[in-house]
Amino acid sequence: MSKITTELLLERAVPRSTRLRKIETLNLSKLQLKTGDLDPRLFSRLRHLQKLDLSDNLLDKFPNSLTLPDLRVLNCNNNKLEDVTALKQFPLLEELTYENNVYLTLNDDYKVMFLLQNLRLLNGKDITKLANHVRRVNSRKLTSKVTAHWEKFFRDQLPEKYTAEQVKSIKKKFLKSVQTNVVYGPSSLSEFTRWRVKMIAEELLACSLGLDLSTDPEPEETMDENEEESTESPREAAEDVDQVGDFSSYVTVTPSKRKRNHSKPSSGNKRSKTQANTEEEAEDVSAEPLHFLQCHSKGNSREDFKTQLWSCVFEPLLDCGARKDPIVSSSRTVATCGGESVCLIDCETGTVLKKYKVATEEFFSVAWTTLTMVISDSRKKSHNILAAAGRRGIVKLIHVAADFCYGEIKAHKKPIATVCFSPTQETHLFTASYDKRIALWDIGIPDCDYNFKASQLLVLEALSIPLRIALVPTCPDQYLLAGCEGGCFAWNIKLDKEQKSRPFEAIFQFPDEDGGMTTSHRVDGLAFLNDDVIVSKSSKPGCIYLWSWSRSFDTKGKGCQRTVSAVILAELEWSPTDLSYLTLSTCPAKDYVFCGDEKGSVWMYNLSNYATAWTSAKGKRSDRKIPPTQILKWPELRENGEQLTEVLINNVVSDPTFTYLVVLTSVNITAIWKKS
């Protein structure tokens, strides 16, 4: 590795120089330089340096005291930069490029536009107009919001005569509160917004209280890209779309009527206490439609109302980084797939944050994992990775923060119906295919150049096509359930067994329409409501069962391919349709089950009042079908004056805290509802 010396600087000057103070242009590209190689004492002698090229190195940040008072042009392309705030030490900088630094985002662009008042060109684009907006309009509105937050919630908390401890306490509470509650602009800029809000808040405290904020600094909290944002600035949102890249045009279809949906009354005149309580809670779960998006259109056609949307999953929160929210323990960014594309959507604003397309693919399933990646100098950082798969039998691996599909796994020769990651092994991915096999893969962890190695660990043999898979929450490394075209099966997936290809260990029997028991039926919905209760949906018309894993399956039982009877706890009242592949989902934290129907409605079941009884070993099956707590009716949507009809709800998913409900349809519309 090359080290920077006086001789090297003189040699790399353009033109070559005999004295450091005479150098105006310096090329230090392609030297494998790391941050520690930039010696501030040596650089402080470059008093007249105006152009500096540091491209194609290994820099992850800038030292804070390089002291280049006359620097005007800086090239940092192809490094590993993670932060740009140290660039404020170059106040005369006019041109800056840092392309191909995968950890930098749009938020960093906005930070340098604010910090560098003379900056004209950023990554080759003239940003003069946008930068003026960021420095003036954005700052003015944020300052107004921060001041209002202080006046309304905190100013009166301080007595006329206050102690240093009281000031310190108020400061800590105010900084946390203001960063959480003051919102502005699109979600993709929320990290920048929080950064600016903290800066403005500290200035306000210093001015109002005479508080020296340079001492006893609070740990800086990073902004969650999924915090509440207002929609005050459509212009900013438009500018955001222009700059993020990989955007395709999309249509927002607005409802002609927006009505509050109330619970559906149960049949019959008499109600049990449990049923009455469930219905009385319905008012609390009323939901309003927020957005109706047409963002998966083939060829971006506004006339496409045929593309089927199949899968959606909310992005997990990171333990650290821009998506950490100190108040709300949930994400509002959801990945959806259907047709040739995968989209990332901000549920609050309805903004399509990112879009990934493969022209020859039809995506059926997406899943998230969080990988701990080595970024530089053996330091580790967590990043969310999205796996997407479909008709081609190939799994695409996407590093979302870097906007980069870094690899693919040719998992099956036939289409992949569904994928899911292990909750305990971050690199373990299950793929269920039309080849009647479920494969377990170790996708590996990509290095800093995105090299990775995937390997197949296990193959589970099924008798029919697996449609839905679920890992048993109490033993996710030992048992997997699958709802298949020909029944519901369980496999032992423990990796300490030598057998790489395994048959199923059990097939479950369920009641049939004639009053008997059968194993042969299509199971197109499968999810755990809690550690023990399974919710499954079969092609028997209107049939959604809740049953117990622990009471149905003896994990100490011997032998494979056992037939066991599912211990039914309850049955949910649902649509009488015999249409298949309208799948269900659960929200375990809130004891909710969701399932769409053939008429565009979403059936919601709050089962919290039943769950306690089911946990009892003596818990008996509910004699009557449990009615839905609420049914969300499909609103009247019109496009080009024509009403959309024959809407099938293929999938319904809520975020972990049941704030948002994302509804995927057969007519290329993603509907987003919000709990009111």
From TrEMBL:
It comes from Dromas ardeola. Residues 211-287 are annotated as: Disordered. It is found in: Chromosome, Centromere, Kinetochore; Chromosome, Telomere; Cytoplasm, Cytoskeleton, Microtubule organizing center, Centrosome; Nucleus. Gene3D superfamilies: Ribonuclease Inhibitor, YVTN repeat-like/Quinoprotein amine dehydrogenase. WD repeats lie at residues 409-443. Residues 264-277 have a biased composition (Polar residues). GO terms for biological process: chromatin organization; DNA replication; establishment of protein localization to chromatin. SMART domains: WD40. This is Leucine-rich repeat and WD repeat-containing protein 1. One of its GO terms (molecular function) is chromatin binding. It comes from the Eukaryota.
